[in-house]
Amino acid sequence: MENKDAPFGGRGRALPAGGHCRKLRLSGYEVDACADGEAALEALAAERYDLVLLDLNLPKVDGMQVLRTLRRHDLETCVLILSARSEISDKVEGLDAGANDYLSKPFHLAELEARVRSLTRRKFIQQDVCLCCGRLSFNTRSRVAAVDGQTLALTRKESGVLEYLLLHQGRPVSQEELIEHVWDGSVDSFSNSIRVHISALRKKLRAALGYDPIRNRIGEGYEIGGEVQ
User: Fold this and answer.
1) Of 15, 7, 6, residue with least CA distance to 48
2) Is residue 138 a contact partner of residue 131, using CB atoms and an 8 Å limit?
């Protein structure tokens, strides 16, 4: 994904491109990137994002059309436009089409990060940030997991795995999906790292709950929910 005109969605979950991806990941955001507007629309149809960073000059489907298509069925997802079009008329058009903010190029990365923090903070203030499964809860803001109100001591990766499973309750999550979204693709599918972290997480959950809430669906992945003795 070398195209610097790609959109970005953000922990939030975010959709940026090029050099922005690595920096945002280092800042703790879960990032997906798309090379063109067509791919962006497919991603937005398949996933829920907290924030979309959207360049207007996208190949295949331009950014303004992506925005208008999104707003036909989604009025909640925050959109920050990043564009070299700096005329007032361009900004007015983007904001009137449903963007929450507009940042003209060139811009300093620190300003981009500040805008991202502002938009995601507004969203999380409005929404419940506690993911629950029976007696188990996970606060996505504080990154704290608890059982019956008692905090669990989890590592960063264990917390990431638990959060992703809780976000996708009701369906199996494959190892490849965890690699992409929790490990940011930094390990391969043959690595033992994922199994080690999941095993450690399951051991801690079993000790706190008295059972293991994570099921291993053979050939499909891991699914959380329900009491399995």
Assistant:
1) 15
2) yes
Residues 6-40: b if buried by 16+ CB within 10 A, e if exposed: bbbbbbbbbbbbeebbeebbeeebbbbbbbbbebb
Residues 47 and 17: their CA atoms lie apart, in Å, by 17
Q: State the greatest distance between any 2 C-alpha atoms of the chain, in Å, as a whole number.
A: 63
For the stretch 116-146, pLDDT in tens is 887 877 655 445 578 889 999 998 878 899 9
Q: Which two tokens stand for residue 134?
A: 């029976």
Residues sharing a CB contact under 8 Å with residue 86, sequence separation 6 or more, in sequence order: 104, 105
List the structure tokens of 84: 């070299």
Q: pLDDT digits over 59-68, tens only?
A: 999 899 999 9
pTM of the model: 0.49
Instruction: Label the pairing between strands 51-55 and 78-83.
Output: parallel
- Give the number of other Cβ atoms within 10 Å of residue 149's Cβ: 7
DSSP 106: S
Q: Looking at residues 80-94, what average pLDDT do you find? A: 86
